[in-house]
Amino acid sequence: MPIAELNNQGLYFEDSGGSGPAVILGHGFLMDSRMFDAQVEALAPEFRVIRWDARGFGRTRWDGKPFNLWDSAADCIALLDHLGLQQAIVGGMSQGGYCALRVALRHPERVRALVLMSTRGTNDEEEIRAGYQQVRDLWGNPDAQGNIIQNLAGAILGDPRFYSPWLERWRQIPPGHFAAAMDNLIHRDDISARLGEISCPAIVFHGLEDTGIPPSEGEHLHRTLPGSKGYVPVPGAAHAANLTHPEVINPPLLEFLRALA
């Protein structure tokens, strides 16, 4: 199993290899690197696709200490160093997009371009944060967890055809992992005033049925990032649009990446 010992974490990653331009992808909350299966299939071997599991999720061995999105950005850079890559196209979905934006702010010389999926550059509204806190506190309650998982599945995946195998994976997430990862989102700092500093090329994707992050936030990212080359709305898609609607996302993604290459 590919584990890199970085920043006191056992970071799980997969690398398609090859000599093409490197693309590194970070997943969303509750998900893991397997949510990018369809992107790896479409991009490799023309591109070298690297995907990794963030602290608290998937197959990464987390040290159990609190973490924030800047720590995740440091993990991403440490993984690039581990692989001997000076620069990459950095992408992410939702939480992974929050991380990608911070990588671009802290290490602009390492970021060839950004691929942003179902994410935002602004902070969540107070009502949303309060809802997240309630979900965090109820995760370990067996009477509540089943309903929480069903509600999250509807918001993240939309169509029940996509629920398997994700719901079973979510049931295995320990309360401590869930709480730390949720706190990572609830307490993230506001970088909205700094988005204009990110000058690299970017492309923004967003599901039009996304109830977790409104599509207007994707449009706002596109308008705010000086280097944004396009906003791609995904009709019928909920939050994890890249997983449920790869036939809409992959063609413009390939076009964007080939233009960079």
List keywords for this structure.
alpha/beta, 18% strand, Rossmann fold, 261 residues, 10 helices
Q: How would you characterize the overall build of this protein?
A:
The protein has 261 residues and is α/β, with parallel strands linked by helices. It has one domain: Alpha/Beta hydrolase fold, catalytic domain (Rossmann fold, 3-Layer(aba) Sandwich), CATH 3.40.50. Helices cover 41% and strands 18% of the residues. The protein has ten helices and eight strands. It has helices spanning 37-43, 69-82, 95-106, 126-138, 142-156, 166-171, 175-186, 215-224, 241-244, 246-260; strands at 3-6, 9-15, 22-26, 48-52, 88-93, 111-117, 202-207, 228-234. An eight-stranded mixed beta sheet has the order 1-2-4-3-5-6-7-8, with helices on both faces. α4 (126-138) packs antiparallel against α7 (175-186). The longest helix is centred in the middle third of the chain and has 15 residues, at 142-156. The radius of gyration is 17 Å and the shape is globular. The mean pLDDT is 97.
